[in-house]
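Input/output pair, single chain:
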Amino acid sequence: MPRGAVRPGEWSLRPMVVADLPELVDVQERGAVLGLSDVFPQAQYPFPRDDVSRRWAQELADPAIDAYVVTGSGGEILGFAARRGDEVLHVGTAPETWGSGLAGWLHDALVATFPRDVRRLRLWVLEGNGRARRYYEKLGWAPSGASSRSPFPPYPVMLEYVRACRCSPAR
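Output:
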């Protein structure tokens, strides 16, 4: 486990609120800059903080989207996730938690929030994000063959991944 990372018993998942956005975007920016600099070179394409903040605010206002944050024992935001219909929209964790098991815990917690009648899940992952692709494949996700483009410059290719839901029967 990374030095200073919180332990699994200290994680809590709760619905995201607008007041979370500044801290959440800080977490997302740190992870994106560290983990996606090959896809979004920061000298040419710095993290679009204002656009990302606006997108989160729009998603929080959308009743079809369920968004969550993971907090540590002190209430600090360690990760985030969102879903809509049969789609995982976002999953991310703070870099200081990488290697701690938080991402897998968050993935499983998010999957457990899907309605029982959802049988197939989907998500989009950047083609150049090998770390995320390996992570999702380890969790049973597979490319569907569909592709798209990121809404953020330089508009890299995104790949659709799918998997059976295995959603929790007890809700």
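The CA atoms of residues 104 and 135 lie 9 Å apart. The mean pLDDT is 93.
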